[in-house]
From TrEMBL:
Transmembrane parts of this sequence: none
Species of the source: Spheniscus mendiculus
Primary residence: cytoplasm
Annotated Gene3D superfamilies: Tetratricopeptide repeat domain
The entry's keywords: Cytoplasm, Cytoskeleton, Repeat, TPR repeat
Repeat listed as a keyword: yes
Assembly description: Interacts with microtubules.
Protein name: Regulator of microtubule dynamics protein 1
């Protein structure tokens, strides 16, 4: 297992998405949580490639969720299993409509929070909690109506809360000297400052996002 994980991490670092998926899917019946959450991530990364068809994207999203769920069952104390379960649950919501997506919102946030409890220095999870906050701050009125019918107290958030989380992310990256600063975080910092009518700071972060070296499909979209 250790050798497979080492090879997988090398392929992930090299951006070899298809090779990584082919390597890990051979071990989909493994009982190792470290291997299974990596397979969930690889399935999701493969789904995001522009060469992947719409039907394959859907299939891979559900596969990824199953792998992440299995990783959690094998080791509830694995922070990455919680993180990728939350991410994959959110992805599946895109195929099941707004009611399901809003209904899953609290579960998603709980798993992100559990991931941070288990690993407070994981910059990506802090960023993703920020995205969660932003998505509810930006929720249109008709979605708020749906949320109100699903929950006595629907999930709400503010741009100020997102900005606070993003600065936590920035601090975490500086503290851990994380080289993968994550382009999407830069973009959302810029968008948040626009919402707060601070155009000077918005320009700063959007410029950083624009200049970020595009390694992945997501970086290019950003």
């Amino acid at each position: 297992v250790e050798e497979v994980i080492e090879q997988a991490d090398y392929l992930y670092g090299s951006g070899e998405t298809e090779k990584l998926y082919r390597l890990l899917v051979q071990h989909k019946n493994s009982d190792d949580a470290e291997l299974l959450w990596r397979l969930a991530r690889a399935s999701r990364d493969l789904a995001q490639l522009s060469s992947t068809s719409a039907e394959e994207k859907r299939q891979l999203a559900y596969e990824a969720l199953e792998y992440a769920k299995k990783a959690l069952e094998k080791n509830e104390a694995n922070f990455a299993a919680h993180k990728w379960y939350a991410i994959c649950l959110s992805d599946v919501g895109d195929f099941e409509g707004i009611k399901t997506k809003i209904g899953n919102a609290f579960v998603i946030k709980e798993h992100f929070q559990r991931a941070i409890e288990l690993n407070p220095k994981d910059a990506t999870t802090i960023h993703l909690i920020g995205i969660w906050c932003y998505s509810f701050a930006e929720m249109p009125w008709y979605q708020r109506k749906i949320a109100a019918t699903l929950f006595a107290t629907p999930p709400t958030s503010t741009f100020q809360e997102y900005a606070a989380h993003s600065h936590l992310k920035l601090f975490s990256c500086l503290y851990t000297a994380d080289p993968n600063f994550y382009s999407k975080n830069l973009l959302f910092l810029g968008k948040t400052y626009l919402k707060l009518n601070n155009k000077k700071m918005a320009l700063l972060w959007l410029s950083k996002a624009k200049e970020y070296p595009a390694h992945t499909e997501e970086d290019k979209q950003v």
